[in-house]
Specification:
By secondary structure, the chain is mainly alpha-helical. It has three helices and no strands.
C-alpha cells in the first residue's frame, strides 16, 4: 500500500481508521437512518 510506505504506518491501522470514519458518517447520515427505519418497519410486518 502506497500510504503505508509513505506514512510508515501499518495498513491495518489505516484500514481501522477508515472503518471508524465510515461508521461515523453512516451513523450521522439522516437519509440512511430514515431508510433503515423503513426497512425495520417492513421487516416487523413479516
Amino acid at each position: 500500500m502506497m500510504f503505508e510506505a509513505a506514512l510508515d504506518v501499518p495498513a491495518d491501522s489505516l484500514l481501522r481508521l477508515q472503518l471508524k470514519y465510515n461508521m461515523y458518517k453512516a451513523a450521522n447520515d439522516k437519509t440512511l437512518t430514515e431508510r433503515l427505519n423503513k426497512i425495520r418497519k417492513y421487516v416487523a410486518l413479516l
